[in-house]
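Quick one:
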Amino acid sequence: MASAARPSCIKVGLKGPAILNNPRFNKGSGFSRKERDDFGLRGRLPYAVDTLDEQVARAYQQFSDRTNALSKNSFLQSMKSQNWVLYYSLLQRNLTEMFPIVYTPTEADAIAQYSHLFRRSEGLYLSAPHIDTMEEDFLDACEGRKLDLIVVSDAEAILGIGDQGSGGIGISSAKAVIYTLTAGVDPSQALPVTLDVGTNNEDLLNDDLYVGYREKRLRGKGYDDFVEKFVALVKKHQPQCLLHFEDFGVSNAQRLLAKYRDQHSIFNDDIQGTGAVTLAALQAAISVTKSKIEDQRIVIFGSGSAGLGIARQLRDAMKLSSSSLSDDEASRNFWLVDKYGLIKKSLGDKIREEIEPAFIRDEQDWGDGETHLSDVVKRVKPTVLIGTSTHPGAFTEEVIKEMSKHVERPIIFPLSNPTRLCEVQPKDANEWSNGKALMATGSPFDPVEIPGSKKKYIIAECNNALIYPGLGLGTILSRAKVMTDKMIVAGAKRLSELAPAMKDPAEALLPEFGGMYSISFSNPS
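Output:
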C-alpha cells in the first residue's frame, strides 16, 4: 500500500453478521476454521474453506456469466460492497479485461443510470441544503481515519456525458478504485466525495427515482462558498491528503485549480491528468518522427477543460524543452478550434474567459469570416491534431487526407470518450492516411491493419489512468504540500519512456493498461 506501513494484523471488534457485512474485513468463504470460531461464523458460512485463488475463480465465472457490460459493472460494484480483498484481487488478475467495465466507457453508462441502480452508499454525499452541517458530515465520514486520498466531483462534466448530479459519486469512487489497483493506495484511506449542488439535467430533474438534490445547479457566490467550505475542511482535518478534483464543469475547473493549487496538494485530472498523458503520447510520437516538441504545429478541436489543459501542459513542456521560449511564443504553436471555429478575436464574447489571450488568434491573419476545422488544417498544415470535442466524426476524410498531404507521419489523437463520441474511428484515420497516422484515443479500440504489412498497429489508449495514479502515489509518499508543473512534466516524460514505440516505431505510443501497477512504481533507469 502507498501509505505508511500498515500493521500485519489488525484487532477487529466485530463478530457474526457485523464482520460479514464489513467489506474491509469480510473474507467470505476464506475465513479459516479458527477465525470462524473466534468471530462466531461457524453456522453463518458453508463448510468449505476456500483459498483466494478458488474465490477468484468462482467470482470470475460469475462475472463471465453476465451478458453485457453494464450488468458486469453492477456485479463488480456489488462485490466491492461485500469483500474488498476479493474485489481487488479479481480486478488485479483481469485488469485488461475489466478496466473498461469499472471505468470508461462502461462507468459512464452506470453513472447515467445511478439513481435506478442505487443500492447502498459508496462515499460521502455533501448536498447543498446541508452546508451548515458540512463539517459534522465530513468528520463523520473521516472519523478515526488519516486519509491519503480524497477524490471529489461536482458531476457537471462526467466522462463526456455531461451533468449527472448526485451520480457523480460513481466517478469519484471509480477513480479511487484505480488508485488502489495501480498505485497501491489503501482503500480504507481513500474517500470518494460528491458535491451535490443540484443539476441542470432535465432528465434527472424529471425522474421520480432521482436520488440527488432536485434543484438547478448553484452558481456564483453560493457555489463558491460551498466549494470553499469543503476545501477548508480538507485542509483543516486532512492536511496531508491528496485532493483529486474530477469532472468539474468548464466554467469552474480551471479557476478552482488556479485558486487552490498553491494552498494544498491538489490535482485536477481533467486538466492536468489529460494534459500529462497526452504529453506522454506526443513525446513518444515525436520520437518516431524524430522532431522536437517546440517545432510542432498543434490544432486542438474542442476547447473545454480537457482541450485547454492539454494546450497548457504541452506549452509547459515546450518551455522546458527550449528555455528561450516565452509563454506567448510557445502559445503560437497552438490553434484552438471550437463550435464557433478558430478562436480568434472577432468571436468577442463567444470566447470563454478561461482561454488565455496568448491562444487567441489575430484577425489580420485570418479575416473576419468563420474559420472551421477544415479551413484551419488547410492553412496551418498541422503536425498534430487533437480532439476533445465530443463531436463524433469531426475528423473527416477531407481533414485527415489534407493533413496527410503535408506531414509524413501525422499525429492524430481523437481523445473524446466514451467510444461513440470519438472524433474519428482509428480504422478510418489509418485508411485515409495510408497507414501513416500515429494514433492515440481516449477509449479502447481494436488494432488496425498496417497497409502492406502482416502486422497490426496497436492503438494507444490515451487514458489519464496511465499517469494520475503514479503522480498521486509520488505526492502521497513524499507528503508534498503542492503538486507542481515540473512534477507533472517529469511524470509524463517517464511514462513516454515506457511506451513500446520508443523501441519499435510500429508499436503503440503508450504502455498497455495491464501493466499499470508497474508503471506507477517505475523508476528511471
